[in-house]
Amino acid sequence: MTTLRRVPIAGWKRCVHEAASFESPGEFKAATLLDAAIQVEWWLRNDPPLLKIPTPIGYFEPDFVYRISRPTGAMMGLLEIKGESFWDGEGSVARIKADSACAWVNAIQHSKATELWEFSVVLEQDVLEAASLEAMLTNAQRRAP
Question: pTM for the whole thing?
């Protein structure tokens, strides 16, 4: 995957773009899990960023946005894949941005918006070891709601 960094890759079933590029093997694996999950209606690689969430230290731009069908109804989701070296303790940039994304999702839930939202940060190693979207999300470091 290192040789394919930032190279657009096509052939997705559920991606809204013709091709998507990735910065890490974990991002590519997350895309394959999103694309293979039958409950995922569509997904997009948020690059260039279409969705930016304001935080106290700049904008948070999640790696993926998706729409998923659940027994309780459809849900929008945000997914961030984070290398372990960047997830380095409370007060780190990654954790401040993740906390802001959780607050953003919770604000949407409390606003009684027509679409429900969820957010997850998953460490790259956990993505690489996951066999399914559910397994990957089960190992999330941060989740909202």
Answer: 0.93
